[in-house]
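User: Is it possible to get a 3D structure for a protein together with its bound compound? The compound here is fe (ii) ion. I've pasted both below.
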Amino acid sequence: MIALGIEGTAHTCGVGIVDDQGNILANEIKMYKPATGGIHPREAANHHAENLVPMVKQAMEKAGLKYDQIDVVCFSQGPGLGPCLRTVATGARALALSLKVPIVGVNHCISHLEIGRIKTPAKDPVLLYASGGNTQVIAYANGKYRIFGETLDIGIGNMFDKLGREIGLGYYAGPKIEKAALEGNKLLDLPYSVKGMDMAFSGIMTAALNHRNKGERLEDICFSVQETCFAMLCEVTERAMAHVEKSEVLLGGGVVQNKRLQMMAEHMAKERGAKMFVPDRTLCMDNGAMIAWTGLVMHRSGIKMTVKDTMIDQRFRTDEVDVTWR
Ligand SMILES: [Fe+2]
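Assistant: Yes, that's possible. Here is the predicted structure of the complex:
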């Protein structure tokens, strides 16, 4: 069985093709980059609309397949930005209808977990999903992927980008913050915002900007923001692992490419006799292969969708999906 998956929840347009063993035959990724400021949803959607058809063709060429070899078309149904979701959903419907194959709408957050389960040795992990738009700690329990903790305001990557813009690092600030943090050594006072099992990031940004206005070094601000936020992520993840008694932690999302976060998560896992896994870089970021793979396992478990069922859902919750494939 061969699945083609289309990702388009936010700034990334992705087309991936996988087989039923989890082999990735193609994984085309193109990212929209705003000229100034943050993501403009309509512009990002236009980017996806322009790139989707050529990317499907490229992916098919890379995979060395003919269109009649595609068995199912999958797409990111949510959560995400409305215009982006609608654009890729329309593309996916058109492709599935013209190829006369089934269509499967996939929860984007769940696909980060499923791609880790097939492409790393992790079998039943707690997922620490940290990206621009999402920050969640997810694990399987009683037929659903349940959210054990999440951000109460903005995604951690979104906070990094906003902070980066304010302190002059430009858009897509995560890697620049990571680099600057290596030169920092003074731990500044920032609000450690874990509330129950949830987290908040916007207050940390305000406090960091106050430190900047008082003349603190940029390197120390980046260092302190990373240390504080990553400790919060690891604390919530560790408590989820203890609660559901799981011994694997899986990282997913763009932010987990940060080496300091990986180091802290690995340390936390080791201390409790657990293992940590990080998929390859292109599988951590948003991509079509993870959508294709998750759609394939859903389809294989008997999930059938009509075109009506493929309405997008900007606030698609991880725990709304009945996990029929486990
Ligand atoms: Fe994502």
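The pocket of fe (ii) ion is lined by residues 108, 112, 131, 134, 253, 286 (CB under 6 Å). DSSP finds ten helices and twelve strands in the chain.
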